[in-house]
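User: If only I could read backbone structure tokens as easily as an amino acid sequence. Underneath my words sits a plain record pairing an amino acid chain with its backbone structure tokens. This is the protein in question:
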Amino acid sequence: MDNLHLDQHISQQFNADLEDLKTQLLEMGGVVEQQIVDAVKAIENADGDLAERVIVVEDDVDEREVNLDENCTMVLARRQPAASDLRMVLAVAKITRDLERMGDEAQKIAKMAISLNEDGGAPRGYVELRHIGSIVQKMVNSTLDAFARFDVETALEVAKEDNKVDQEYKSAMREMATYMMEDPRSISRVMNIMWALRALERIGDHARNIAEHTIYLVRGLDVRHTSVKEIERQLHES
């Protein structure tokens, strides 16, 4: 695990400002993580009430995003941070956006759960949903942990898991498409599962983004649009 040494400042308030940004971000992450867990559970069980709660939580997530954006802007304006301090503020701002988009995807899953609750369950796709959902939930937990501990090795593992999710998603889509051709009557219900799987795949992408922001924060390496193999090489050479 890397140990990021944020610059020490004469102003204790500056230290407090940076720590507060980190705390607020992790709190937002906790809310979004639970939102994803509940959304997957809602669609697995066609639980309309739980799905409605997931949708309501999105307002809280949006408010947290706005507050964190404002706080980041204030720190930049007042403190004019440099080096690792600047990377910290920028990372928080970028991760905040990814968390908000994760919340949006969880909301989409919840809406599919409501549709399934009203129209009847889909005949296929729940095994794939449960499997990919489990991987993605672990990715979200791990990527937030990587940020909290400034741990680039865990961040790298999250990036590797994203490749796995992409493969599993493509396989599931092929199976769902084949089934719908065999039984056209199931199309609308199976499509709800497919949209939920798409949302989970996107959450995995955002988890990887957070992992990449963490690597930038700790090592100063911009690894966006970079293969996992190349990220690994850069980390071991830096």
